[in-house]
């Protein structure tokens, strides 16, 4: 006789990016600068053990000083390593907060906290675990009055969060010169005429991204043009769904964009809306839709890949139904 049992096996395929430190290509800024202690010195791969004034950053004595790293894309941050200055002022780092997220509100200091630095001995490097927090920005911030923020090195480790847009296909209602739809998903670095899409001036212009599969979309990030015409994005609708009716513009709305300042990137939460298509549309006459970057983040729906895989083990037959979650 034979006993038969059914098991459900779930295989989760995650990103294959290696654990990486981002030191080259990122952009840094701080709330103020003391003498030549510039913000960039915290990512120069020199922990400042010898000449402090040439290898460390420092703000002025002020309220709520901050230092911010722009990773230029959205990452899952595993760990942040901070090196303190190697002199008698090491205690200035005490109470600093490490924040990670996508918001620039309050100079990024409203983003979620990874860790609070109680103290770091002079000249030492301490590791702070962030458990895969997702963010475009890493902020070091000391709350309070009469504070100085000085950093001799900031190292960030993690991996790139998957931007679904880069493997999609883009199309738009019309094209102005060579401002083709694909330029909104090329991960370009804001060279306006080389890196942005644009329609003609028309009624209800739209741009559509085909993700090729149905995804649960958590967030859409839109980067506006960095010139005279930033206000043209005002009123644009972000729609997500599976319909191509009316060029996809009848799909449910994720968000309406009231405005995005010139050259900035704003993030819109879509709460896991399901869809193959991401549409941006500006309703109305004589409208122009220009996009310098569109990034889409989410997860795939479970897909049944194999059914009824039978494995014999003595008197037992196991049936394994395999799901792959992309």
TrEMBL record:
Pfam families: F5_F8_type_C_2 (PF22633). Acts as a defensive agent. Recognizes blood group fucosylated oligosaccharides including A, B, H and Lewis B-type antigens. Does not recognize Lewis A antigen and has low affinity for monovalent haptens. This is Fucolectin tachylectin-4 pentraxin-1 domain-containing protein. One of its GO terms (biological process) is regulation of complement activation, lectin pathway. GO terms for molecular function: fucose binding; metal ion binding. Homotrimer. Residues 24-160, 161-304 form the Fucolectin tachylectin-4 pentraxin-1 domain. Belongs to the fucolectin family. Keywords: Calcium, Disulfide bond, Lectin, Metal-binding.
């Amino acid at each position: 006789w034979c006993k038969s049992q059914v098991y459900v096996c779930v295989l989760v395929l995650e990103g294959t990016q290696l654990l990486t430190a981002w030191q080259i290509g990122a952009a840094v800024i701080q709330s103020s600068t003391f003498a030549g202690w510039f913000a960039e010195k915290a990512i120069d791969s020199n922990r400042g053990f010898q000449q402090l004034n040439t290898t460390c950053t420092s703000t002025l004595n002020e309220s709520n000083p901050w230092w911010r790293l722009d990773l230029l894309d959205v990452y899952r941050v595993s760990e942040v390593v901070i090196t303190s200055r190697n002199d008698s002022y090491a205690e200035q780092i005490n109470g600093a907060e490490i924040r990670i997220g996508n918001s620039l509100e309050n100079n990024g200091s409203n983003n979620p906290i990874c860790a609070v630095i109680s103290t770091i001995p002079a000249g030492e490097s301490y590791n702070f675990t962030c458990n895969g927090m997702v963010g475009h920005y890493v902020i070091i911030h000391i709350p309070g009055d009469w504070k100085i923020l000085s950093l001799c090195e900031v190292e960030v480790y993690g991996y790139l969060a998957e931007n679904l847009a880069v493997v999609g296909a883009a199309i738009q209602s019309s094209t102005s010169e060579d401002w083709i739809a694909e330029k909104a998903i090329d991960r370009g670095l804001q060279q306006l005429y080389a890196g942005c899409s644009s329609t003609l001036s028309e009624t209800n212009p739209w741009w559509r991204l085909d993700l090729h599969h149905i995804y649960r979309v958590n967030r859409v990030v839109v980067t506006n043009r960095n010139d005279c015409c930033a206000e043209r994005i005002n009123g644009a609708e972000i729609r997500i769904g599976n319909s191509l009716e009316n060029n996809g513009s009848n799909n449910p709305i994720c968000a309406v964009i009231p405005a995005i300042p010139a050259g900035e990137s704003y993030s819109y939460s879509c709460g896991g809306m399901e869809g193959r298509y991401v549409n941006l549309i500006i309703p109305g006459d004589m409208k122009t839709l220009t996009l310098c970057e569109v990034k889409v983040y989410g997860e795939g729906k479970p897909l049944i890949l194999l059914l009824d895989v039978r494995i014999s083990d003595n008197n037992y037959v196991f049936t394994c139904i395999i799901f792959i979650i992309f």
